[in-house]
Amino acid sequence: MRSTSNPAFRNLPVGGGGYAGFNSAPAGLGGAAPGYGDTSLATGRPMTVDDVVTKTGITLAVLMATGAVTYLTPSIWGLALPAALIGFVLALVITFKKVVSPPLILVYAAVEGVFLGGISGFIGNVIERQTNGATGTGIVFQAIAGTAMVFVGMLVVYKTGAVKVTPRFTKWLMGAMIGVVGLMLINLIASFFVGGGIGIRDGSPIAIIFSLVCIGIAAFSFLLDFDAADQAIRAGAPEKTAWYIAFGLTVTLVWLYLEILRLLSYFQGGD
Predict the structure, then answer these.
(1) Average pLDDT over every residue of 42-69
(2) I want to staple 20 with a disulfide (CB 3.0 to 4.6 A). Which of 25, 29, 36, 161 is the partner?
């Protein structure tokens, strides 16, 4: 049995496979994912890769729509902070909820879009002031393009089996994730007492290295996410489970985008 570094996939079934799948035929309904309400869900058709692609596309479309509206409306950039808090609470509810709720997942995507749009607008505005308006919007498109390229690149890596998802790989990656999250919390607490905290988010060389590490961890997390989705398909999880997978992939994409945006801001003079 293998777990994933993405807590959003904590309830997905795990089984065979390991790499170069993500389009396997369902193995039947007997292995339907646990934690999705009563067993009547198993009477529906099993999930397919098309379901995953469609539900993920819908979820990301909602996120990008609210993100674009927020980014283009400076007067509501201030909603970024409350949106981040609401999104965090919604993520916890969705993660630990035993029944898949597509409306709740779409609300999460909409809220995260407001957060990303607001924070992107704020960072872009800061950079515009520092560079006489030369790169404020460009950095946002660069971050979006970078996120998309990393996602596609890791999908190719998974499909070709260039990196195998093994229990040892999973343990190393989860350990790395716990480490960076721990450092983020320490830095946050330290920032209340010392300007810049412990220096991992202040634009210094150490901060750049830390962001690169976070980007790397987020990128490799996609391999575990793809593998979890592949195993759910193999186990014959219900079609509705595709919404849960879409949510998990969105969580990773949001983290990756934020890290890339932050890294780019360092090179433009932001902090």
Answers:
(1) 90
(2) 161
111-142 per-residue burial string, b: 16 or more CB within 10 A, e: under 16: bbbbbbbbbbbbbbebbbeeeeeebbbebbee
Handedness of CA 224, 230, 236, 242 (dihedral sign): positive
Q: With contact defined as beta carbons under 8 Å apart, do 81 and 129 qualify?
A: no
Residue 151's nearest CA partner among 36, 254, 33, 263 is: 254
pLDDT above 90 for 76: yes
Map residue 238 onto helix, strand or coil. Answer: strand
Q: Give the pTM.
A: 0.81
Taking the chain, what is the end-to-end CA distance rounded to the nearest angstrom?
41
Rounded to whole angstroms, the Cα distance separating 206 from 28 reads: 50
Spans of all domains in the chain: 8-16+45-267
